[in-house]
Amino acid sequence: MRVGQGVDAHRFAADRRLVLGGVTIPYELGLAAHSDGDCVMHAVTDALLGAIGAGDIGQHFPDTDPAYAGVDSRRLLRAAVALARERGWATVNMDATIIAQRPRLADHLPAMRDCFAADLGIEAEAVNLKATTTEQMGFTGRGEGIAAMAVVLVARTDAP
Ligand SMILES: [Zn+2]
Protein backbone atom coordinates (compact mmCIF):
# COMPACT_ATOMS: atom_id res chain seq x y z
CA MET A 1 0.00 0.00 0.00
CA ARG A 2 1.01 3.61 -0.48
CA VAL A 3 -0.34 6.93 0.75
CA GLY A 4 -0.33 10.38 -0.86
CA GLN A 5 -1.36 13.82 0.29
CA GLY A 6 -2.69 16.86 -1.54
CA VAL A 7 -3.21 20.50 -0.63
CA ASP A 8 -4.87 23.20 -2.73
CA ALA A 9 -6.37 26.67 -2.37
CA HIS A 10 -8.11 29.13 -4.66
CA ARG A 11 -9.27 32.69 -4.12
CA PHE A 12 -12.87 33.80 -4.40
CA ALA A 13 -13.92 35.68 -7.53
CA ALA A 14 -17.16 37.23 -8.72
CA ASP A 15 -19.04 35.80 -11.69
CA ARG A 16 -17.81 32.27 -11.07
CA ARG A 17 -19.75 29.17 -10.08
CA LEU A 18 -18.68 27.67 -6.76
CA VAL A 19 -17.81 24.03 -7.42
CA LEU A 20 -16.48 21.90 -4.57
CA GLY A 21 -16.04 18.15 -4.64
CA GLY A 22 -17.86 18.03 -7.98
CA VAL A 23 -20.93 19.75 -6.52
CA THR A 24 -22.17 23.21 -7.55
CA ILE A 25 -22.94 25.15 -4.37
CA PRO A 26 -25.25 28.18 -4.36
CA TYR A 27 -23.11 31.14 -3.24
CA GLU A 28 -22.48 34.68 -4.42
CA LEU A 29 -18.81 33.94 -5.21
CA GLY A 30 -16.94 31.18 -7.02
CA LEU A 31 -13.26 30.24 -7.08
CA ALA A 32 -10.83 31.77 -9.58
CA ALA A 33 -8.83 29.26 -11.59
CA HIS A 34 -7.95 28.12 -15.10
CA SER A 35 -10.22 25.11 -14.44
CA ASP A 36 -13.54 25.16 -12.57
CA GLY A 37 -11.55 25.97 -9.40
CA ASP A 38 -12.64 22.87 -7.48
CA CYS A 39 -9.90 22.89 -4.84
CA VAL A 40 -11.26 19.75 -3.14
CA MET A 41 -11.11 17.79 -6.39
CA HIS A 42 -7.60 19.15 -6.99
CA ALA A 43 -6.38 18.17 -3.51
CA VAL A 44 -7.72 14.63 -3.91
CA THR A 45 -6.24 14.34 -7.43
CA ASP A 46 -2.86 15.49 -6.10
CA ALA A 47 -3.09 13.00 -3.24
CA LEU A 48 -3.79 10.15 -5.66
CA LEU A 49 -0.95 11.22 -7.99
CA GLY A 50 1.30 11.45 -4.93
CA ALA A 51 0.35 7.97 -3.75
CA ILE A 52 1.32 6.40 -7.09
CA GLY A 53 4.51 8.48 -7.39
CA ALA A 54 3.25 10.37 -10.44
CA GLY A 55 4.13 13.96 -9.53
CA ASP A 56 1.36 16.53 -9.31
CA ILE A 57 -1.71 17.85 -11.05
CA GLY A 58 0.13 20.78 -12.67
CA GLN A 59 2.51 18.42 -14.49
CA HIS A 60 -0.30 16.34 -15.94
CA PHE A 61 -2.80 19.13 -16.64
CA PRO A 62 -0.86 22.41 -17.10
CA ASP A 63 -2.89 25.56 -16.38
CA THR A 64 -1.29 27.09 -19.47
CA ASP A 65 -3.02 24.49 -21.68
CA PRO A 66 -6.20 25.89 -23.27
CA ALA A 67 -7.60 22.34 -23.26
CA TYR A 68 -8.12 22.69 -19.51
CA ALA A 69 -9.76 26.13 -19.53
CA GLY A 70 -12.89 25.92 -17.39
CA VAL A 71 -12.53 22.14 -17.28
CA ASP A 72 -14.74 20.05 -14.99
CA SER A 73 -12.11 18.95 -12.47
CA ARG A 74 -13.79 15.55 -12.13
CA ARG A 75 -12.27 14.86 -15.55
CA LEU A 76 -8.81 15.46 -14.08
CA LEU A 77 -9.47 13.09 -11.17
CA ARG A 78 -10.80 10.43 -13.53
CA ALA A 79 -7.68 10.78 -15.69
CA ALA A 80 -5.51 10.32 -12.58
CA VAL A 81 -7.58 7.24 -11.62
CA ALA A 82 -6.99 5.82 -15.12
CA LEU A 83 -3.26 6.43 -14.78
CA ALA A 84 -3.26 4.71 -11.37
CA ARG A 85 -5.09 1.71 -12.85
CA GLU A 86 -2.56 1.52 -15.71
CA ARG A 87 0.22 1.41 -13.16
CA GLY A 88 -1.52 -1.31 -11.12
CA TRP A 89 -2.95 0.75 -8.27
CA ALA A 90 -6.51 0.91 -6.91
CA THR A 91 -7.76 3.41 -4.34
CA VAL A 92 -8.51 2.00 -0.89
CA ASN A 93 -9.94 5.10 0.78
CA MET A 94 -9.70 8.88 0.90
CA ASP A 95 -10.18 11.56 3.49
CA ALA A 96 -10.38 15.29 2.78
CA THR A 97 -10.87 18.46 4.80
CA ILE A 98 -12.29 21.63 3.28
CA ILE A 99 -11.23 24.82 5.02
CA ALA A 100 -13.78 27.58 4.48
CA GLN A 101 -15.26 30.26 6.69
CA ARG A 102 -18.28 30.38 4.43
CA PRO A 103 -20.49 29.19 2.87
CA ARG A 104 -21.64 26.43 5.20
CA LEU A 105 -20.82 23.15 3.50
CA ALA A 106 -22.20 20.44 5.78
CA ASP A 107 -25.35 19.88 3.71
CA HIS A 108 -23.29 19.37 0.53
CA LEU A 109 -20.82 16.80 1.85
CA PRO A 110 -22.98 13.73 1.03
CA ALA A 111 -23.26 14.76 -2.65
CA MET A 112 -19.49 15.35 -2.81
CA ARG A 113 -18.95 11.93 -1.27
CA ASP A 114 -20.99 10.32 -4.05
CA CYS A 115 -18.90 12.13 -6.70
CA PHE A 116 -15.63 10.91 -5.22
CA ALA A 117 -16.90 7.36 -4.73
CA ALA A 118 -18.00 7.21 -8.38
CA ASP A 119 -14.79 8.72 -9.76
CA LEU A 120 -12.42 6.71 -7.57
CA GLY A 121 -14.41 3.49 -8.03
CA ILE A 122 -14.82 2.85 -4.29
CA GLU A 123 -17.71 2.55 -1.84
CA ALA A 124 -19.10 5.78 -0.37
CA GLU A 125 -18.12 4.38 3.01
CA ALA A 126 -14.43 4.64 1.92
CA VAL A 127 -14.82 8.36 1.19
CA ASN A 128 -14.70 10.82 4.07
CA LEU A 129 -15.19 14.58 3.77
CA LYS A 130 -14.98 17.19 6.48
CA ALA A 131 -15.53 20.93 6.49
CA THR A 132 -13.95 23.25 9.00
CA THR A 133 -13.39 26.96 9.54
CA THR A 134 -10.28 28.67 10.89
CA GLU A 135 -12.30 30.83 13.31
CA GLN A 136 -11.84 33.95 11.16
CA MET A 137 -8.03 33.58 11.09
CA GLY A 138 -5.95 33.62 7.92
CA PHE A 139 -7.05 33.89 4.28
CA THR A 140 -9.86 31.38 4.57
CA GLY A 141 -11.02 32.97 7.82
CA ARG A 142 -11.20 36.38 6.14
CA GLY A 143 -13.30 34.86 3.40
CA GLU A 144 -10.67 35.41 0.68
CA GLY A 145 -10.80 31.85 -0.58
CA ILE A 146 -11.15 28.17 0.17
CA ALA A 147 -8.47 25.57 0.86
CA ALA A 148 -8.58 21.79 0.94
CA MET A 149 -6.32 18.99 2.13
CA ALA A 150 -6.62 15.32 1.29
CA VAL A 151 -5.01 11.93 1.75
CA VAL A 152 -5.53 8.93 -0.51
CA LEU A 153 -4.45 5.36 0.20
CA VAL A 154 -3.83 2.97 -2.72
CA ALA A 155 -3.12 -0.75 -2.93
CA ARG A 156 -1.61 -2.93 -5.66
CA THR A 157 -4.37 -4.47 -7.76
CA ASP A 158 -2.24 -7.61 -8.20
CA ALA A 159 -1.64 -8.03 -4.44
CA PRO A 160 -2.68 -11.43 -3.03
ZN1 LIG B 1 -6.58 23.94 -7.75
TrEMBL record:
One of its GO terms (molecular function) is 2-C-methyl-D-erythritol 2,4-cyclodiphosphate synthase activity. One of its GO terms (biological process) is terpenoid biosynthetic process. It holds the Pfam family YgbB. SUPFAM superfamilies: IpsF-like. Pathway: Isoprenoid biosynthesis; isopentenyl diphosphate biosynthesis via DXP pathway; isopentenyl diphosphate from 1-deoxy-D-xylulose 5-phosphate: step 4/6. Keywords: Isoprene biosynthesis, Lyase, Metal-binding. Its EC number is 4.6.1.12. Binds 1 divalent metal cation per subunit. The record marks 34, 133 as: Transition state stabilizer. InterPro entries: MECDP_synthase, MECDP_synthase_sf. 4-CDP-2-C-methyl-D-erythritol 2-phosphate binds at residues 8-10, 34-35, 56-58, 61-65, 132-135, 139, 142. It catalyses: 4-CDP-2-C-methyl-D-erythritol 2-phosphate = 2-C-methyl-D-erythritol 2,4-cyclic diphosphate + CMP. Its cofactor is a divalent metal cation. Coiled coil: none annotated. Residues 1-154 form the 2-C-methyl-D-erythritol 2,4-cyclodiphosphate synthase domain. Gene3D superfamilies: 2-C-methyl-D-erythritol 2,4-cyclodiphosphate synthase. It comes from the Bacteria. A divalent metal cation binds at residues 8, 10, 42. It is an enzyme of class 4 (lyase). CDD domains: MECDP_synthase. Belongs to the IspF family. Homotrimer. Involved in the biosynthesis of isopentenyl diphosphate (IPP) and dimethylallyl diphosphate (DMAPP), two major building blocks of isoprenoid compounds. Catalyzes the conversion of 4-diphosphocytidyl-2-C-methyl-D-erythritol 2-phosphate (CDP-ME2P) to 2-C-methyl-D-erythritol 2,4-cyclodiphosphate (ME-CPP) with a corresponding release of cytidine 5-monophosphate (CMP). This is 2-C-methyl-D-erythritol 2,4-cyclodiphosphate synthase. The lineage of its organism: Bacteria, Pseudomonadati, Pseudomonadota, Gammaproteobacteria, Chromatiales. The gene is ispF.
